[in-house]
Write a structure and sequence with these properties.
heterotrimer, A alpha/beta (about 325), B mainly alpha (about 280), C alpha/beta (about 325), A: alpha/beta, B: MetI-like fold
Chain lengths: ~325, ~280, ~325
């Protein structure tokens, strides 16, 4: 029986009076890549920051290697950070403009391994730069001298220098050119494979997600609506939102949408009771307005939060 | 800092007014340091033979003398030296205190920030001259009092500026990345916040120096600061005002020095702000 | 074809003064857009696609623009300001990428829309607001009457883009330039906007220049596609042809890099080594040569010109068959 590396239970994060993350529970295991997909307002970035305690959670627990991060004192949490890292979306904003990239990569080393001598530190930084595909001599340069893709490599180097057990990538390739995205994703896959690390890949780009994840979690307005293996989800999505999401992705060559496209957009702050998606859902029942469907397990290990998930809904071709 | 400092210096050099102003400031500083070597008169000797003498390069007293026969050249240079020292020391103090206060207040936020800002607002609200007069009445005149009152002024606005900058920097991803890397608040403030607010700090500091010099001159003019027989531009101007009709050089020389110094510091400060404000790319 | 092209650009170059010298954002671009045609302009960052159309709209700022831009046969580049202003905003309109910043925050939607009609067609404010409401209906904004008195910050991103689209269609333009209109939007909203653009084209017979870095978005709409790289057009072909049989190596590599929802799952994503050149980078004769799997000595010394039949042009010494 595999013990999960990360266990999130009933997590709630409030944003003023709104709940950005509502009652989210899931597990992450070692050496797997799990994608978290959703659109703006889904709460996926807030969830990532809440796991890392970069924002405060109102309720719930986050157990990492058996330790509840949310209830640990700050010093214990800080000690855990060496195994729990994140790469953000905006490549240039993630790096201190007044610090050389070498110093930026070295910072986690200086914090967690203060006994390292200066030259050993330099060597580790150089090794990390080479590992992410940059030349070691660039360590004395400043972030503004690099391109977006290179800055992301530097952020990845910084996140990986202590060999964390879990790496969260929050839209890490979304700002990059198409021809660069593949380079960065391949780098992440290589690093993950070499280190046996768990990767939580947050993205709104389903096509990218399909290529690199073992499992996919879909979020809508703060709730997880579907969790399934990648193959199963893309072959036959069950939740109406997942189906709408997949149908909306433009393709080459263009395909006619098989499931009806949803109209309208997220109405922030509307949902007090019932299913958050019911206003836009083509399959909504009166039941959906009064009762919020919980994530229930279906055959094959898939979990879906929909009152009608047990019905046989036609899969997308 | 290589990239930023280099670019800023280049932009500064391209600004003729700023270059001229900085040249004049350097000349004045050099004069105050080396000046006494050129003319042997000191600030205290009373030359009864040349009381209230006019300035002239032929005479022993290049800038003339005052009512008591003291050499104005020596006294003006001494006074300028005092003003510059006070300006520098007070600016440095205000930077140290203001930056720390503002960065801590802005980064920690919450109740701490609220309390710290209230303190600043209360101190800003005090009518400073009355405060100084009040202290003088209680403790008597002294130079340390002068430093205390100037010190009370300088850091307030600096702290506010730094706090504002800190609030906007705090939202950036690289701060979150530093937290995620396990950095303590102290480390983040020192290594991530402060280096990124240095730009506005330097500019504001350059513009506070003239303000402080002027404030000191004002206090001394009122009789609250440097006292006889010490010289400061303020006391010299105060004496000069009394002799305006009979011996106008007693006002014009120290007044001229003060005006030129303030003007050049302000021009240089503006040039520095323009040079540092331009974003990369 | 005897009809005058709606837009005719010849040897257009846009350059900026930079502290290190002059930087070319657009380098000798020529293109034609026929009436009611939808042309997709595809490229990555630094390709010059946005600068090209900003220059067409006369919004190039400090840049120096050389060449010729003819709109419905009339030269636009050196025309007098009144002539340009008559055309711009009425017959030649543009939708920008960021819906957050493209609408004036302190004016109501109704005012901003009506202003277009009052200025360009001399309508009264009342008539203009009526026409605006009808247009909001056409772009499928629910409750159009209520929206007229709302302010931009009260609308979502998708709504704002619909308003921008409405604004650009008010005077029945001959050409609408849409610069990354869906990039800042969610996938489901993007699908709605693409659907809307498709419907608008059918109804109004307006030509559309769709600029995007996303080939898939363009695939659903464009009749013809221009691929840009380093400020130049490297391929110009009918959309179906381009996707079936790309002729320029960059197009082929780019298509391989786009991950798809169908097709096999790969252990590693296909990549293109290096990065797209930015304006100001030193370039070889063919700017793609450093990254091109087919590059030869000729590519480094001789600049390839855009050549081919009207069905498909490519700027390459060794195009794919």
């Amino acid at each position: 029986m595999n013990i999960p590396l990360l266990q999130v239970r009933n997590l709630r994060v409030d944003f003023g009076r709104q709940a950005a993350v509502r009652d989210v529970s899931f597990d992450l295991f070692s050496a797997e890549t799990v994608a978290l997909v959703g659109e703006s307002g889904s709460g996926k970035s807030t969830l990532a920051r809440a796991i890392l305690r970069l924002v405060d959670s109102a309720q719930g627990s986050v157990e990492f290697k058996g330790l509840d991060l949310l209830r640990s004192p700050a010093s214990v949490m800080r000690a855990q950070r060496r195994d729990l890292q994140i790469v953000f979306q905006d490549p240039l904003a993630s790096l201190n403009p007044r610090m050389t990239v070498g110093d930026a990569i070295a910072e986690p080393l200086k914090i967690f391994e203060p006994q390292l001598g200066a030259s050993e530190c330099r060597q580790r930084v150089a090794a990390m730069l080479e590992r992410v595909g940059l030349s070691a001599g660039l360590a004395s340069r400043y972030p503004h001298e690099f391109s977006g893709g290179q800055c992301q490599r530097i952020s990845i180097a910084r996140a990986m220098v202590l060999h964390p057990k879990l790496l969260i990538c929050d839209e890490a390739v979304s700002s990059l050119d198409v021809s660069i995205q593949g380079q960065i994703i391949n780098l992440l896959l290589d690093l993950q494979r070499d280190a046996g690390m768990t990767l939580l890949f947050i993205s709104h780009n389903l096509a990218v997600v399909r290529q690199l994840s073992h499992r996919v979690m879909v979020m809508y307005l703060g709730k997880l609506v579907e969790i399934a293996s990648s193959d199963a989800l893309f072959a036959a999505p069950v939740h109406p939102y997942t189906r709408a999401l997949l149908a909306a992705v433009p393709q080459i060559p263009p395909v006619a949408a098989a499931a009806p496209l949803v109209e309208g957009s997220l109405s922030a702050g509307s949902v007090a009771i019932g299913c958050a998606f019911r206003d836009r859902c083509p399959y909504a029942l009166p039941l959906c307005a009064s009762s919020d469907p919980p994530l229930t397990e279906l055959d094959g290990g898939r979990r879906v939060a929909c009152h009608r998930s047990h019905e046989v809904l036609n899969p997308l071709s | 800092m290589r990239g930023f400092a280099g670019d800023a210096i280049r932009r500064l050099r391209a600004n003729p007014a700023a270059v001229l102003a900085s040249g004049v400031i350097c000349a004045v500083v050099v004069a105050t340091l080396l000046g006494p070597w050129l003319n042997p008169n000191n600030t205290q000797t009373l030359d009864w033979l040349h009381v209230a003498a006019r300035p002239g390069l032929q005479s022993a007293h290049w800038f003339g003398t005052d009512r008591l026969g003291r050499d104005l050249y020596a006294r003006t240079l001494a006074g300028t030296r005092v003003s510059i020292v006070i300006g520098l020391v007070a600016s440095i103090l205000s930077i140290l205190v203001g930056v720390s206060y503002g960065a801590i207040s802005g980064y920690i936020g919450g109740r701490t920030d609220q309390v710290m800002m209230r303190i600043i607002e209360i101190l800003s609200g005090l009518p400073l001259i009355f405060f100084v007069i009040f202290l003088t009445v209680i403790f008597g005149r002294s130079e340390s009092l002068l430093f205390i009152s100037i010190g009370a002024v300088g850091w307030l606005t600096m702290a506010r500026i730094v706090r504002g900058q800190t609030l906007s920097i705090r939202q950036q991803d690289f701060i979150a990345a530093a937290v995620a890397s396990g950095a303590s608040s102290g480390r983040i403030i020192a290594k991530h916040v402060v280096p990124n607010v240095i730009g506005p700090v330097i500019v504001y500091a350059t513009l506070t120096v003239p303000q402080i010099i002027l404030f000191e001159s004002f206090l001394s003019f009122l009789g609250l600061g440097i006292q006889e027989p010490g010289a400061s531009l303020g006391t010299l101007i105060a004496e000069g005002v009394g002799e305006m009709e009979a011996a106008p050089w007693m006002l014009l020389v120290p007044g001229g020095f003060l005006a030129v110094l303030l003007l050049c510091l302000n021009i240089f400060g503006d040039g520095l702000r323009d040079a540092l404000d331009v974003r990369e790319g | 074809m005897n009809t005058v092209p709606t837009l005719s650009v010849d040897e257009l170059s846009v350059s900026f003064a930079h502290r290190t010298g002059t930087v070319e954002a657009v380098d000798g671009v020529s293109l034609r857009i026929a009436p009611a045609e939808c042309v997709g302009v595809v490229g990555e960052s630094g390709s010059g696609k946005t600068q090209l159309f900003l220059a067409v709209m006369g919004l190039a700022g400090n840049a120096s623009v050389r060449g010729s831009i003819r709109f419905e046969g009339k030269e636009l580049l050196r025309a007098a300001a009144p002539a340009i202003n008559r055309v711009r905003g009425s017959k030649l309109t543009m939708i920008f990428q960021d819906p957050m910043t493209s609408l004036t925050p302190h004016l109501s939607i109704g005012t901003q829309l009506a202003e277009v009609l009052v200025c360009h067609q001399g309508l009264s404010w009342g008539e203009a607001r009526d026409a605006a409401r009808r247009m909001l209906d056409r772009v499928r904004i629910p409750e159009p009457q209520r929206r007229l008195s709302q302010y931009p910050h009260e609308l979502s991103g998708g709504m704002r883009q619909r308003v921008m689209l409405a604004m650009s269609l008010l005077c029945e333009p001959a050409l609408v330039i849409a610069d990354e209109p869906t990039t800042a939007l969610d996938v489901t909203i993007q699908a709605q906007i693409i659907e809307l653009l498709r419907a608008m084209r059918g109804e109004a017979g307006t030509a559309l220049a769709l600029i995007s870095h996303d080939l898939a978005v363009v695939a659903g709409l464009a009749d013809r596609i221009l691929v840009m790289y380093a400020g130049r057009i490297v391929e110009d072909a009918a959309a179906a042809e381009l996707f079936r049989q790309p002729r320029h190596p960059y197009t082929a590599e780019l298509l391989k890099c786009v991950p798809s929802l169908s097709g096999p799952r790969l252990a590693r994503l296909p990549t293109l080594a290096g990065q797209p050149p930015q304006p100001g980078d030193a370039l070889q004769a063919c700017p793609f040569a450093p990254r091109c799997p087919r590059a030869a000595d000729r590519c480094r010394s001789e600049r390839p010109a855009l050549m081919g039949a009207s069905t498909g042009q490519v700027a390459c010494h060794f195009p794919l068959p």
